[in-house]
Amino acid sequence: MKSMIKQGVQPVVSHCRDEGDGRRPWSLLDKVLLGLTPRQYLEQAIRNPFNWILGAIFAVGLPLIAYRFLFGLSAVTHSSYDYPWGLFLAFGLFAMVPLSASGFMLGTTVEIFGRHDFAPIERLALLNGLLGYLFAVIYLLVDLGQPWRLPYPMVVAFGPAAVLFLVAWHVATYLSVQVAEVSVSFFEFMGWAGGKRFIRRIAVGLTVAGIILSTLHQGALGALFTYAPGKVHPLWYSAAFQWIHFFCSAIPGGLCMVIAVSTVVKKTMAWRCDGTFLDNLDRCTIGLAKGASMGLVTYLTIKLIGVAHDNEWVYLTTGWGAWFLFELAVGVVLPLALFAWAIHHQRVGLVRLAAFITIFGVVLNRINTALIAFNWQLYREIPHIFEVLICLTIFAIYVVVYRFILYRLPILFTWKAVESEVPEAVAETVRPVRAGGSVPAASAVYRAID
Amino acid sequence: MIKPMSFLYVPVIALVVLLGATASTAAPSADSPDQVTIDRLASLFAAVSFDHAAHVEIAGDCATCHHHTTGDGAGTGRCGRCHAQSPKTAEVACGSCHQVDPFSAAALERKADDRYQYHVDKPGLKAAYHWNCLGCHEQSGGPTGCGDCHPRTPAGDAFYRAGAYAPKTAAAPAH
Amino acid sequence: MSGISRRRFLAASLAGCAATTLCGTQKALAAGSFTGYPEGMGVLVDMTRCIGCRSCEAACNREQNLPAPAKPFDDLSVFDETFHGGTQKRRPDENAYTVVNRYEPPGGKPVYRKVQCNHCNEPACLSSCFVNAYTKTQEGAVVYNSKICVGCRNCMIACPFNIPGYSYSSAFDPVVKKCIFCHETRLKNGRPPACVEICPQQALTFGKRRELIKIAHQRIHNEPGRYVDHLYGEKELGGTSWMYLSSAPFEQVGFDVAVQNEPIIANVKDFLSTVPMVLAIWPAMFTGFHLLAKRRGGHGHDDDHGGDHAASHGEEGGQS
Question: Which runs of consecutive H residues, i.e. helices, occur in chain B?
Fold first, then answer.
């Protein structure tokens, strides 16, 4: 895309082409093709080496997914009775969901606490939340024995005393909430001002709903393991605090995921970002890192309280203890130290590195709880190679969908409204900035970088 | 070392038994059967032909197997507390006390009504046989294999998926 | 406070109340403890009697129409099978609802342990199931409804005895496979399960659970040298319908002796209790934060990225 821009191609940022006085509206196809001709679009897609990597993954992974659905789980997993939840859930559900806590975190920051200085990154955080949940559900669908019965807990049979019942309802509801939150961008893209106005009106309600649902199901995912007191190693198990551990670690997890994604975005699709996003990114990153640090230090504290509460110190001297300490040292203490130093010295690069390490730490914690330290008295389950490949493939689909949306919807850039064309939207979309000054009204001016 | 395999005993084996075996006193009496065939309901296993006369010789004392019902004392232990002086009962055969179907609803109800509670844990007929026979056979070197007493019928082979009904390929069970 | 924000505040609170009411029902089932149906049946497994003949496995296979085994049921080499680097013995799975394993405790005869669903009074599988596919029947069986099972396998995670198996190999109708106490064919008609009926040694005693507890303690009392003074399953995990007597310490014959005496649901109640609190408190609290944040700074809302409800904002400004 970058080279296309050098050739004078303009990516779509509004409903109309900007060609001097001749304002021709973009068709939907134009918008989808980023303002390129189909031929141009295909050319740039083929030129991108990353697409070839994705293609290779899909070439292997998509047939494997089909294979799983045609021949059952036993075709692609070890069909373990002792480890009924394998990598699909350990990584796909238990790790993806905390990394998607960004939506409610930034929603709260901006909408509830009125910190509009974080607004430039809010939409990215909301989208990250939506896609993370969506793909957690997709991982779940791959793992479920009878995925077509997924709506059963909503409509057919209720097990209301089960934690998973809460998870199901809350994730389903929260997905709807996130779709609504992200739909603002979609409405702008489509030029449906009415839809956008409606969502704006209920924004606070949506955000508060998001906080409630997130608190509960992030915690509920942890509480799921309180069903297995003898199976999860005591160091990763805490009857009293499991849900708080999961909830609390989701906070740095979600925030760091936004830092990580924005880092990737800045590196790989700067052409799609507008000035508002790029100019504010470093400042927002530092801000997010401060939040993540608070989350991490709290998490570290309550993890240690968890050990003390159940008097598990003796386990720390075992091999499991060493692994536990490794998880905390590398996944929590190290990024915490890096954050502290980097924030103090305003070293954004180091903050980003620490964010990636934090993500590693959160993922490691979830995989430890669900897989590695699970059945600690039995044996270790090594996932089937097909299971790993399917996980990778779904993650690749996630990346593709993520990129597809970022390229098109006004997430990283501001949609440029055209007064003459959508008059009813004017009142809303072209209001002058009153405070903060961080969002210049004409921020939609496209910046061709590099 | 006993090969557990050899204890493949029957289920539904015949209860019956000793129905003909009416009592005897201390010494084998005239009405003590010489041969007892245990065959009712023996669908999975062939009938057992029990040489009562030979076992009378070996046991020496009727109470070894028949507790107090032959009237010659119940030995020591818990039973003796009540039954040391018990007279010979009208029925001596195992099946007259040990039920064929100890867990039927009717049997459970009877147990619940048992005022004395002493006999609530009395084994059923099948267990009574096996405990009695196996207990001695293990110590005295008598036969202990299932087939030693009652070879399997074809229906039994089908039930145990053995013999002609054995699995063709021994696939390792997936765990 | 302006009219609009008050209205919005009320709406948020109402939504919270509605949500709380909805979820209040979720708590109801979790409350209190259930110690089993008084007339529930059970089985007392006396491991001192078991001779490892595997007849129960054969009977179960026939009764439940399970697939053919890998080895005949009179093949005792299965006792030497181990899995996962020699760490695991056989376990019930999708093809076998019950298995017998041999243990050789130090200084004693081999002990045979029959493994099957223990039919907990307050089953973990049941309480973890989000579609209520499990039922504890009045007769004491824990039965499973394959028609509504989604296949999440949380029951397998939750079962402290690692009992439920899953027919992973089925692509279109995979279901949980576990011992159901022969509920449909026998138990509900007052008959003992097939394994009990076939046992030549009466190692399995069928009866009302409360009677079995008495019988078990009587056996221990009568023959203290024969038994370890413990009835496994009387208290463990809130009590199970199937209970065990052993000559060897239970930890030497494959039992998890570290399990809690409370049912598994007890571990989860703490979290379930927080749910209505969060639902009730969060809406008001965060809406309150929002109002505070807005009024304190007095700063406006930019309109685009992150700017919220610009229209109503204007209205508000006009009214206040």
Answer: 52-59, 63-66, 77-83, 105-112, 125-140, 146-149, 154-159
Q: Closest by alpha carbon to A359, among A166, A132, A98?
A: A98
Is this structure's pTM higher than 0.95? no
C154 and C128 Cβ atoms separated by less than 8 Å: yes
- Residue A44 is predicted with a pLDDT of 86
Could you read off the pLDDT of C49-108 as tens digits, one per residue? 999 999 999 999 999 999 999 999 999 999 999 998 888 999 999 999 999 999 999 988
In a domain, residue A9? The reply is: no
What's the Cα-to-Cα distance from A15 to each of A172, A409, C143, rounded to whole Å? 33, 12, 60
Minimal CA separation from A373 to chain B, in Å = 19
Q: Do C174 and A146 count as a contact with CB atoms less than 8 A apart?
A: yes
Output the CA–CA distances (angstroms, integers) from residue A434 to A413, C91, C296, C301, in the order listed: 19, 69, 16, 7
Q: Collapsing DSSP states into helix, strand and coil, what is residue C194?
A: helix
Cα-Cα-Cα-Cα torsion C114, C120, C123, C126, nearest 10 degrees, comes to 80
Contact criterion met (CB < 8 Å) for A160 and C26: yes
State mean pLDDT over B102-131. 85
Q: What share of chain A is helix, strand, coil (3-state, %, to 5)?
A: 70, 0, 30
What residue segments make up the domains of chain C, in order of their start? 41-267
- CB distance from C198 to chain B under 8 Å? yes
Is-contact A270 A282, C-beta < 8 A? no
Residue A302 host element (H or E): helix A275-309
* pLDDT for residue C259 is more than 90: yes
Q: Is the ipTM of this complex over 0.90?
A: no
Please give the structure tokens belonging to residue A287.
């801000």
State which residues of chain A have pLDDT below 70: 1-10, 15-24, 417-450
Q: Round the average pLDDT of chain C to a whole number and report it.
A: 84
Question: Could you give the CA distance from residue C183 to residue A228 in angstroms, rounded to a whole number?
Answer: 27
C164 contact residues in A (CB cutoff 8 A):
81
Distance from CA of C201 to the nearest CA of A (A): 31
Q: Do B173 and C112 touch (CB under 8 A)?
A: no
Give the least confident one: A88-92, C17-21, C128-132, C306-310. C306-310
- Strand C242-245, strand C41-46: pairing: parallel
Asked if residues A253 and A358 have their Cβ atoms less than 8 Å apart, the reply is yes
CATH code, domain with A352: 1.20.1630.10
Question: Would you say residue C110 has pLDDT above 70?
Answer: yes
Which distant-in-sequence residues (6+ apart) come within 8 Å of A340 by Cβ? A293
* pLDDT, position C121: 94
Name the residue range of residue A283's domain.
86-429
Amino acid found at A1: M
Q: Does B172 touch chain A (CB under 8 A)?
A: no
Q: How many CB pairs under 8 A join B and C?
A: 122
Mutate to test the interface with A, among C146, C153, C271, C273 (most CBs of A within 10 A): C271
The whole-number pLDDT of residue A7 equals 67
Kindly report, residue by residue over C190-246, the tens digit of the pLDDT: 999 999 999 999 999 999 999 999 999 999 999 999 999 999 999 999 999 999 999
Chain B residues near residue C70 by CB distance under 8 angstroms: 167, 170-173
The token pair at A440 is 């210049």
In a domain? residue A327: yes
C41-267 CATH:
3.30.70.20
Which residues from A are below 8 Å from B175, CB to CB? 80-82
A19 burial class (0-12, 13-18, 19+ CB within 10 angstroms)? exposed
For chain A, the domain total comes to 1
